[in-house]
Write a structure and sequence with these properties.
alpha+beta, 5 helices, single chain, 165 residues, two-stranded antiparallel ribbon, 6-stranded antiparallel sheet, globular
Length: 165
């Protein structure tokens, strides 16, 4: 009797279909793949940089501007539709998708605010993320701080802060 065929898991299929992970935007790339959200060809980190110029977010100074931005971003995140990430029970968190927001521009404001206000801390596997703490949650995006939100970001994550500020 022949041995049963093994079905590869989704991660194995993804690795087989794509050459590598872009070190710049963290999107899977292969020869001829499109950069998410742009018509440019994404074959190397250099192509990524040419298609998606870096955005430098200036963090606001402590004071009224920072407080205003924290309030605005906090209000947007409280109103967002959240769902539990059931595929990662070892790292319990929730996420919200841009396509489910009533106002896509508000999603971009939230992402930009997270990136401007966030603090770099914590590593998950091989990536370092910037987190914004707004009690009782920490919020983060998957893309690097310099990636343009409009072209690269489709979700925002949040997890309950283990130590409340």
């Amino acid at each position: 009797m022949a041995a049963p065929l093994e079905t590869p898991n989704a991660g194995e299929v993804r690795k087989a279909r794509f050459a590598s992970l872009c070190s710049r935007c963290r999107k899977w790339i292969n020869d001829g793949a499109l950069i998410f959200g742009t018509p440019a060809i994404h074959t190397t980190p250099e192509d990524c940089a040419a298609a998606l110029p870096s955005v430098e977010w200036a963090p606001p100074d402590d004071g009224p501007e920072r407080e205003r931005l924290m309030e605005e971003v906090g209000a947007l995140l409280r109103e967002a539709p959240w769902r539990f990430a059931k595929t990662m029970p070892d790292a319990p968190h929730e996420y919200t998708l841009r396509r489910e927001w009533r106002d896509p521009a508000a999603f971009i404001v939230a992402v930009t605010g997270i990136r401007r206000l966030a603090v770099r801390r914590g590593k998950w596997k091989n990536a370092t993320y910037d987190y914004l703490d707004i009690a009782p949650h920490a919020y983060w995006t998957m893309e690097p701080r310099h990636a343009p939100a409009e072209a690269t970001t489709v979700l925002i994550n949040r997890a309950v802060l283990l130590v409340q500020p």
